[in-house]
Amino acid sequence: MEKIGCFIYTVSNDEMSNFKNDTFFGPNAVNSFKTYHPDIDLIYITDDNLQEYLTELNITEYYDNLGILRIHIIKELMLQQHYTKMIMLGADTFTCARLDEFLEPTSSDMICSLGPPYPFLKTEYWAPTVKSYTANNKTYHEVDFINADVVCFNNSKIVEILYEKSLEYWTDHCEQGGMNYLYQNQDSLNIKVSIVDYPYFSSKVAYNVRSKGEASGGCQMKDGNLYSGHYNDSNSKIISQTYPTSEYIVKNNKLYTPEGKQIKAFHYAEALAIKTKSEYDEVISEIKTLWFNTQTKEFLINKCNCKF
Q1: pLDDT at residue 21, as a whole number
Q2: Residue 105 contacts by C-beta under 8 Å, 6 or more apart in sequence?
Q3: Cα–Cα dist 186/115, whole Å
Q4: Residue 244: which region, alpha, beta or left (left: phi > 0; alpha: psi -120 to 50)?
Q5: Which residue, among 205, 88, 94, has the nearest Cα to 149 in the 3D structure?
Q6: CA–CA separation, 97 and 80 (whole Å)
C-alpha cells in the first residue's frame, strides 16, 4: 500500500538562524501544500519539534549541516515509518497546484527540479551538461543543474544512496551536490533520476526557480531593479525595472509564467538563511510589496492559503 509524505523543514543552527522565528515562509509552504494535497501526510519540522523527531527516529548522532540532516531524517522516516514516496520542499517555497508529476506512477527513483541555467555551478565530482535544442527556428541552450529544494523520493533506497554519496563527495553544495552527482552518474549507479521540468524550453510546468526567469539565480531583484547577477556584485548591471515575478498570469485558477508554463511549485531561493537580519526583513518586505502583481497575490491568498 502506498504511503506518501511531504517533508518541510525550518530548522536553525548557529550559522543559519533567520528561520528561528519564521512566520511567513514556513507557514505559507505548509498551508499551500496542504491546500492542494489534503490526502498526503505533512511532516513539518521546526526548532520546536526537531528533538522530538530525532528521539522518535533514534537519531543520536548526526552531522551539523542542515541540508544533510534533513536527508538523514527523511531516510529514517521512510525506513522506519514505511513511506513509499516522500516529497521534500524547502521552507521558502509555496505550492500552487497539485504536484501531479511527482505523484503519477513513474520508473524514476528520484524526481528533481531545475536550478538556474548556470553551467559553472559544478564541483570536482560532477558538472551539469549543456545541450542545444532547436524549435520554431530558435535555439535553446539547456543546462541540467538541479536545485535541491523541490524533489520527490520514490523509495527509501534512493535516499540512502543520496545520503551516502552526498557525504562521500562532499562539497559546499551539500545534499544538492549529491543530487547532481546521482543525476550525472545514474547509469553507473544503476538508478534512475529525472528532472521534472527539463528541458525547460519545452516543459509545460515549472517546479523551482526557473519560473523566476532572468532572476532565477537569486539576489537579482532589489529596489525595483532587475540585475544581470547578484545586486551586490560590482560587475552586475541593471537590465530591467520589471521583476519577472510581477508578470505572472492567473487563468482558470492556475498560475502561469508569461511564457505559458504552469507554476506548480515556486522557490524564492534568495539565500535567505545566510542574510543578515536586516537583509532578510528587507527581502520579505519586497516579496510582499513588489514581487507579485495584484492578480497573483489574490491567487496566492485565496487559492493557496498564503498570508501576505
Answers
A1: 79
A2: none
A3: 19
A4: alpha
A5: 88
A6: 30
Write the CB contacts of 6 (distance below 8 Å, at least 6 apart in sequence).
33, 37, 40, 41, 42, 43, 86, 87, 88, 89
pLDDT at 263: 98
> What's the pLDDT at 136?
84
pLDDT of residue 208: 98
Give the CA-trace dihedral at 51, 281, 113, 118, to 10 degrees. -130
Q: How far apart are CA 289 and CA 293, in angstroms?
A: 9
pLDDT of residue 273: 82
> What's the pLDDT score for residue 249?
98
Triad 250, 206, 32: Cα angle to 5°: 65
> What is the structure's pLDDT at 272?
87
Contact of 284 with 308, CB cutoff 8 Å: no
**Residue 185 CB partners (closer than 8 Å, separation 6+):** 126
Residue where the block lists cell 548591471 = 237
Domains of the chain: 4-302 (3.90.550.10)
Q: What is the per-residue pLDDT for 276?
A: 85
Which residues of the chain, if any, have pLDDT below 50? none
